[in-house]
Amino acid sequence: MEANIDPSELQPLGEYDFEKNFDHRAARKWMEENWQKSLIFSVIYLILIFGIQHFMKERRPFKLRGPLILWSFSLSLFSLIAACRIWKQMAFLLLTKGFKQSVCSQSFYVHPVSKFWVYLFALSKLVEMGDTLFIVLRKKKLIFLHWYHHVATMILSWYGYKIMAAGAGWNTALNLSIHFAMYLYYTVAAMGIRVPHSITMLITTSQIVQITGYVIMNIFMFFWKDDKVCRFTWPLLLFSMSLYTTLLALFSNFFVKTYLSNTQKSKWN
C-alpha cells in the first residue's frame, strides 16, 4: 500500500537534523519484512512471564526499586518527548486540514517532525513488555488485562506501521500522552511517594476515554472508506475494533472493581 499524501501536509515545522535524516523508507521496509516477528515475540513473552511466575512461587520477591525507578522514568521521558513532536504535526493538520484529515492522514509516517517518533512508538511496544518482568519478579498480581494489552497492542502497532494505517496520529499522540502520566506515576510510586487515589483513578479514566476515542475513530474510518480518504485493510479494521472493544470492556471492569467497588465498601464500613 503506497502512501497518498498531500504535499502541503509536509510543510517544515522546525524539525531537528536527526529527525529529518531518519530513513522512514528503510524503517518501513524492515517492518514489512519483520512485522510477523511480533507474533513470535508475543509467544516468547507469554512463555517467559508465566515461566518466571511459576519459578518465583516458592521464592522471595525481588525489590528492584532502583531499576524500576529508572525504567519507569525513561519510558515517561520518551513518551513526553515523542508526544510533543507528534502533537506538533497533529496541531498543524487540525488547523489547516481539519479533523477528518488529521485522522486519515498518512503524513505522520513521513513528515520530518513525526516519522522518527512514530517508528520508535511501534518499537516501544516491544520494549514496554518489560513492565511485566517487574510484576512477576516482585511477585505482584498479574492480571489478564495487563498481558493481553501488551501482546495485542504490539501486534497491532507493528502491522499498522507496516501498512501505514490511517489513524496513526491520534493513536500515537493520545497513547504517548497517557503513558507519560502513567509511567511518571510508576516512577513516583517506586520512589515510595504516596500518590493520591484520585490521580490513579484519573489515569485509568483517561485510558478508558482514549480507547473509546479509538473505537469512534474506527467507526468514522469505516464510513469514510468510500471516498478513499482513509486507507486501511479489513484485517486491520476488524482486529483493531475487536481489540479496542475488548480493552474498553476490560478497562471499564477494572475501573469498577478497583475504584467503585472499594468506594462502596468504604461507605458501608
Brief account:
Helices cover 73% and strands 0% of the residues. The protein has 269 residues and is mainly alpha-helical. The chain has one domain (13-268).
Would you mind describing this structure in some detail?
The chain has 269 residues and is an all-alpha fold. It has helices at 17-20, 24-34, 37-55, 65-96, 99-104, 115-127, 130-137, 144-162, 168-190, 197-223, 234-268. Helix 2 crosses helix 8 (144-162), helix 4 (65-96) packs antiparallel against helix 9 (168-190) and helix 8 packs antiparallel against helix 11 (234-268). The termini are far apart. 33% of the residues are buried.
Largest sheet: none
Shape: globular
Percent range for β-strand residues: under 5%
**What class would the helix/strand composition place it in?**
mainly alpha
What integer is the average pLDDT?
92
Stretches where pLDDT falls below 50 for ≥5 residues?
263-269
Number of strands: 0
User: Secondary-structure element sequence?
Assistant: HHHHHHHHHHH
How many separate domains? 1
Distance between the termini: 59 Å
Secondary structure layout plus pairing:
Layout (H helix, E strand, L loop, with lengths): L16 H4 L3 H11 L2 H19 L9 H32 L2 H6 L10 H13 L2 H8 L6 H19 L5 H23 L6 H27 L10 H35 L1
Helix pairs in contact: 2-8, 3-7, 3-8, 4-9, 6-8, 8-11, 9-10, 10-11
